[in-house]
Amino acid sequence: MDDYLFISALQHYAYCPRQFALIHVEQAWAENRFTAEGRILHERVDSGEKEQRGALRYERSVQLVSERYGVKGKMDLLEIENGDPPRYFPVEYKRGKPKVEDWDRIQLCAQALCIEEMKNTQVSEGAIWYWEVRRRETVEMNEALRRTTVAAIEGAREILTLGKTPSPIDKKQRCRACSLVDLCQPETFRQDWSARYVEQLLTRQ
Ligand code: SF4
Predict the structure, then answer these.
(1) Per-residue pLDDT tens digits for 146-198
(2) Is 191 contained in some domain?
(3) What separation in Å is there between the alpha carbon of 45 and the centre of ligand 1?
(4) Rounded distance, CA 36 to CA 33, Å?
(5) How far is the CA of 104 from the centre of ligand 1 (A)?
(6) Ligand 1 atom showing the smallest separation from residue 22 Cα
(7) Partners of 88 in the beta sheet?
(8) Ligand 1 atom closest to Cα of 181?
């Protein structure tokens, strides 16, 4: 397979399919404070060094690929505990704080799917380390998260295949934090929707 989907792009899709399409179909990108801080954080942790501490080995900037799901990418940290079989524990670094939504967990789960395929193993847990609150959130790779992740992979791939940018999402708060809000112009779409809705109501009378 040569048209792999980048694991990091799944986060864009989960946040907003239109944002995913603007970045990965239309090749648009705009940096804001959030994306800049995230980039700087990853530059800091991407040392590529390996380290052994007791029974634990730490591998950084690990390359990942899954032929089955057609995804590839790089993970921040892989903790490997000696054993038979060894225990693999992916760790992703994020600039913000834990979220109710699965955006970050989807990315971690996609990493776990790659590790399972590459190492012929089972990954039951991983963690996301949040810079803003300086703590790890443990993530269980349960069936629900795996299904959500596979659905995100399929949804993102469909957009790439069709090459069509979806309409804006109906989440104003999410749009306010989006680096592409100026380019996307969600309010223009919303005004159009409102105008069309009023028109339909009037023509029905
Ligand atoms: S501004 Fe809103 S609708 Fe537009 S890409 Fe960003 S999150 Fe999606």
Answers:
(1) 999 999 999 999 999 999 999 999 999 999 999 899 999 998 877 776 667 66
(2) no
(3) 28
(4) 5
(5) 17
(6) 5
(7) 80
(8) 1
Could you write out the DSSP letters of every residue in 74-122? EEEEEEEE-SSS-EEEEEEEESS---SSSHHHHHHHHHHHHHHHHHT--
Give how many domains the chain has, as a whole number. 1
Asked if residue 61 belongs to a domain, the reply is yes
CA distance 149 to 140: 13
Residue 63, classed as helix, strand or coil, is strand
Taking CA atoms only, the protein residue closest to ligand 1 atom 7 is: 175
In a domain, 30, yes or no: yes
> For the packed helices 17-24 and 143-162, what is the interaxial angle rounded to 10 degrees?
50
Report if residue 195 sits inside a domain. no
Candidate of 101, 174, 191, 192 to mutate for ligand 1, largest count of ligand atoms within 8 Å of Cβ:
174
Boundaries of domain holding 148: 5-167
Lining ligand 1 with CB less than 6 A are 16, 18-19, 22, 168-169, 174-175, 178, 180-181, 184, 186
Residues 6+ apart with CB under 8 A from 86: 80, 121
What are the pLDDT digits (tens) for 32-80?
Answer: 666 777 777 777 667 667 888 899 999 998 999 999 999 999 999 999 9
Per-residue pLDDT for 1 more than 80? no
